[in-house]
Structures are given as C-alpha cells and as structure tokens.
Amino acid sequence: MKNNIKLSAMALALATIGLSACSEDFLDVENPTQLTLEEYFSDPEKMESSVTAAYAPLHWFDYNAHKDCSYADPVLIADIMSDQMFVGGSNSTDQPALQKIGNWSADANNTPVSLWDDCYSGVKRCNDCLHYLEGYNGGNKNQLIAEIYTLRAYYYNILWKFWGNIPYYEGNEEFPSPSIDNGYSAKQLSPSESYAQIIKYLELAINEPTFPSTQKAGEEGHATKAFAKMLYSDFVLYQKDKDRYSTALGYMDDVIAEYPLEKDFAKIFTEAGEWCSESIFEINYVKVGTRDWNDNDRVAAGTVLPAFVGPAEAVEGKCSSGWGFTPIKESVWDLFANGDQRRDASIIDARGIATSGRYQCTYLYNAKYAPRAENLASSGDPNLSYGNNRRVYRVAEAYINAAELSAKLGNGKAEGYLTTLREARGGSYTGSSIADIVEEAAREFVGEGKRFFIVLRNDGENGVSAQNLFVGAANDNSGKYNYTAEQMAQNGKFAEYNKYLPIPQEDLSADQNLKQNPGY
Known about the structure:
With about 525 residues, this protein is mainly alpha-helical. It has helices at about 10-15, 35-40, 45-55, 75-80, 95-100, 115-135, 140-165, 190-205, 225-240, 245-260, 305-310, 330-335, 340-345, 395-410, 415-425, 435-445, 450-455, 465-470, 485-490, 505-510, and strands at about 165, 190, 280-285, 345-350, 365, 390-395. The strands form three sheets. The chain has a two-stranded antiparallel ribbon with strand order 1-2. A two-stranded antiparallel sheet has the order 3-6. A two-stranded antiparallel sheet has the order 4-5. The protein is globular and about 65 Å long. The two termini are about 45 Å apart. Residues about 5-25, about 180-185 and about 480-490 have low confidence and may be disordered.
C-alpha cells in the first residue's frame, strides 16, 4: 500500500522544496518547457504531478529541520493539550514550545509555527491545482476539483481548530506570506466566517457525482467523498451548526454503510493494518529516504512520530526505544474494562518492566504509533523515517459522530451506534448521554489527537466541562514518577482562550493587520 500517490520527478521536486518564513521562492513553479503553465498542466500526467505536490505538505508536519528541529505533528500537539497525556521528553525544556503548549503557557514565540506554515503551503498548492484545472479538459476534471476542495478543507481544518481566527484565501494572488510587502493580503476571518466558506466547498465536493467514496487499489491516499463527509461532520460538530446536524448524520450513515469495523483492533495500527477495512483516510509514509538532522526534512520519507513517542528503553516484544514524549496518564488506563481489546492495542504498559524513565514518565506509552522493527527505515536516519501511516479518519469516528449527532437531535438512535462499536471492541459499557459518548471516544482514540477537540465541542453539555477536565490535568499523578513537585508547579491552568493557540510572532511582525488571538 506504500506506492500510493506516486511522486513523479517533477512532483518530487515540488514536494521537497524547503519552506522559509522569509521567502516566497518555494511557491514559484518554474516552467520546464516553453508552454504556458496552463498549457503544460492540460496534460493529465502533468496535472497529476500538481495534485501530488498538493499532498506533499501532509508529510512535513512532524519534523521541521528548517525551524530549529521543531516538531509540530497535529496529533501530538492535540494530545498534549488534552487530559490524557503529559508532554514528557528529557526535561521541562525539551522542545520548549511543546512544554509551554502542554501547560497552557504558550506564547507567540512558542507556538507550532511550522504547522501553520505547512498548512498554508498546502492551501497554496491546492489553489495552484484549482487554477490549473480551470483549463484542464481531462475526463476526471470534476473529480479532481472535488478531491482538491477536500484536501484544502483538511489543511484549513487544522488551522481553524488550532488557531480559530485565520487568514482565509481561495486564490494565490491573496497568498498570506510575510514576504509580501504589505503583509497578509488575505483577510483574517473569525472562526464562523471561515467555517461558512470552507463548508461551502465541502458541500460542492460531496455533491460531485464523479467523486468516489472509496479509492481503488493502488490509489489509497487520495481524498475521497467519504473523507469529505468525515471532514464535514467534524466541522459541523465543532461549529455546533445545528442546522446541518441532520445532513451530517446522513453522511455518517453513508460512511458506516461502506466501511466495516475491523474485528481485530490490534491489527489497525500495524503495517498489515494500513488501509484496513475501517480506514477512511491515512497519510502514507514509507520507511526509506534520506531524511537527516540537517535541512533535509522535505524529502519523501517516513515519519518521526514513533521515535518521538517511544519509551526511553525498548520494551521486549512490543517496541524499540524512543525519546519518551507523550507518556500516558494512569487515569486513561483505568478507563478500560476487562475484555476491551483497545486497551493493550492503545497503551504499552511498561510498569514494572522498564527502568529508564524520562521527564513526567508514567511507563505508559502510545502503542498505536510505537517504534516497531517492521516500520524501521532502511536508509537515512532510522529515527526520522519510520513507515507508520498516520490514520486520520477511521469508521469508528463515524459511529461516535453519529451517536453524538443523534443525541443532540434527540432521535433515540445514539445507543444503537454505541452498542455496535462497543460490541466490536469488547468490554461492557452502557449509557448514551453526551458524557457517555465523550468517554467512549476517549477509549477509542487514545493517541490519535481527537480527545481535546471532542471535549471542546461538547463543553457545557450533559456535565461535560473542558475547564474541569483540563484545569490541573497536567498535575495528574503528581509525585509518583520521574518529576518533582517543583516541576509540576510549572503547569498552568486551562482558560477559555486556550481553545486556540497564539498566532506565530514572525507572522504578526510581517503584517500589522493580523491580530493576535485574544488572551495572548
């Protein structure tokens, strides 16, 4: 399954050019012939190279050598903002931006600027594709337009959830780059304003008849209609757009009908489980490449995340060693009933086995993206090129979303969705209130970056309180492991403004019209 979205020579060149906050050169597309760009991209093969380049920034999230070796994987960031994981690492200054994000003290100079840059690079490349598609006459034109609308919505979904008040643009003449003399020419929109634009294009993609719900073998990794429907429900639930709840529920039913739950949960996050029956969208990584500790972070290669979340020492039969970030709290282990196959497939329990702990160590680690020999790179620095695909959406999330939408619509169907999911996973759980749904999601998505946003979108409903869950969350298990009371005292408290991260200072400095998020 690793040959999906193959990189042609031109696409690889487009995909691996570095990103600089002080230069817009990486956005320039050089004309390799005497044809105009529009004429050049009228060829289906060349058009495919532009599409491939639009996907390339998905691979940049987790490691950015050009940003002082910063790590900005959206899964990791969302997890340390939740109440399920500590930041970890070697000490309280290891990856300072992550440490500050994890204890609610982020600022404009300690925020995931590379994630911001990478997502806007993705948006720009999607806009390039849409521009070239205007003059493209291939039979798959409408399908490609729908695909790129969906991919662009995914980049915006990350920006919208993490930063809220974001510059929004649909044409590259508005591209928001600090290198533009007058700063951001794209207007900074409120979350509701950008939502209204993004959802419009998702609806166009979903309503395109030629846009497939699943991809044929060899094409996995391209956006599909099912991916668009998952994004749609994600946006609608987070925005609390009641007028679209019924439509979103219908889309979840569509996805559930097409994607069966995987019977063996432990298989899902193995190499054999990539693109399994319940996988809707994954980011493909390959365990080859020449990624290194210099500026060579844009090559087509694997992912750093397994090394990042792996334990300080190898756990025999389970995983290799890593850098000890995102240790899981004991309260998460305690969520699972006996017989629930998700517990051991989600959490590596090294208590009583491992002896080398790092900062905030609990000896509980992320099993889903653990560093395993089967995913180890055969070239380059192996720590930087694991082959674990990133699972973005699984059909299990359609069941959770459907239950949540049903509970909010009051149609009496929430219990049915939860029962189907629970029976597939094992364990005896009951209840279908919003609080029950949020807790079921907490069990299903450990280590997948979902918890923080699911809590926030249900804040204030049926006893769910983001403030109660996140205030002091980092203090869980204080004094029990490898950190002192003084270290724990560094942890801050969640406030309403922490729903969004601070906008990077380099972008604020480039444009006086760009306003910082409230509270920072």
